[in-house]
Amino acid sequence: MSDHTDPLVIRALEFKGGMAAPGGWRPEPTLPEVAFAGRSNVGKSSLINKLVHRKAFARVSHTPGRTKEINFFEVNRQFMLVDLPGYGYAKVSKTAKATWRPLIEGYLRGTPKLAGVVQLLDVRHAPTDDDLVMLDFLAEVGCPVIVALTKVDKLGVRERVERVKALELQLQLDEDQVVPFSARTGEGRDELAAAVSSIVAGALESSSEERAEEL
Ligand SMILES: Nc1nc2c(ncn2[C@@H]2O[C@H](COP(=O)(O)OP(=O)(O)O)[C@@H](O)[C@H]2O)c(=O)[nH]1
Ligand SMILES: [Mg+2]
């Protein structure tokens, strides 16, 4: 650990609240926001906990689909980490799905401070229809997208290389957009932390340029 430099040191972490409905309450949009998206059970809470070095920060749930709000966490007073509700879990009722999609899409469309999105996909599985809808939607929004391929510890070396390649090809992803990740081993945490930091740095830079132009 001694010569290890953490690309995202967590100095302060504060839960700011949840947004329950499209157009509903949300924290003041003053900081760049990085949102985390993925279907229920993909490992989103586990990934967020690893990213911020907390054991149970975003709750790791064994009941998929329970977190229905968009949760906002302020990191280092520098950016907002936004935990989107997991989508596409079969046991969730149609009405629940009908309210989540406008919530997620409304947030992504209606957030000028959105600096980027981390989209999670289980490395073992083909993307679901919901995943594909989400990726198309993110392409339309046009913000930087990082794809975290979760649970890589569940695959052997060869299978894993094949799956990563196949997903990159199918989804036409750049190699440097893709982060193989395991919450179990911690693999990919620092790479993801570096990617998030650079998205935030990019957003802060362009907002200070905008301010300079206004003066
Ligand atoms: N083997 C393994 N299991 C994981 C990993 N990440 C999450 N899980 C498990 O997958 C399940 C769902 O994880 P969770 O973080 O709650 O997923 P969420 O619904 O997307 O927030 C839990 O049983 C986790 O322990 C991982 O990297 N490796
Ligand atoms: Mg969760």
CATH C-level label: Alpha Beta
Overall morphology: globular
Sheet/helix structural class: alpha/beta
Strand numbers in spatial order across the main sheet: 1-3-4-2-5-6-7
Number of helices: 5
Q: How is the secondary structure organized here?
A:
Elements: E1 13-19, E2 33-37, H1 44-51, E3 70-75, E4 79-83, H2 94-109, E5 114-122, H3 129-141, E6 145-150, H4 157-170, E7 178-180, H5 189-214
Parallel strand pairs: 2-4, 2-5, 5-6, 6-7
Antiparallel strand pairs: 1-3, 3-4
Magnesium ion is lined by residues 44-45, 61, 67, 86.
Describe the protein.
The chain is of the alpha/beta class. It has a single domain, classed as 3-Layer(aba) Sandwich (Rossmann fold), CATH 3.40.50.300. Helices cover 36% and strands 19% of the residues. The protein is built from five helices and seven strands, in the order E-E-H-E-E-H-E-H-E-H-E-H. It has helices at residues 44-51, 94-109, 129-141, 157-170, 189-214, and strands at residues 13-19, 33-37, 70-75, 79-83, 114-122, 145-150, 178-180. It has a seven-stranded mixed beta sheet, with helices on both faces. Strand 3 (70-75) and strand 4 (79-83) form a beta hairpin. The radius of gyration is 17 Å and the shape is globular. Guanosine-5'-diphosphate is lined by residues 38, 40-46, 60-62, 64, 86, 150-151, 153-154, 182-184. The site of magnesium ion has 5 residues, from helix 1.
Attribute tags:
5 helices; binds guanosine-5'-diphosphate; binds magnesium ion; Rossmann fold; 215 residues; alpha/beta; 19% strand; 36% helix
Give a brief description.
The protein has helices spanning 44-51, 94-109, 129-141, 157-170, 189-214; strands at 13-19, 33-37, 70-75, 79-83, 114-122, 145-150, 178-180. By secondary structure, the chain is an alpha/beta fold.
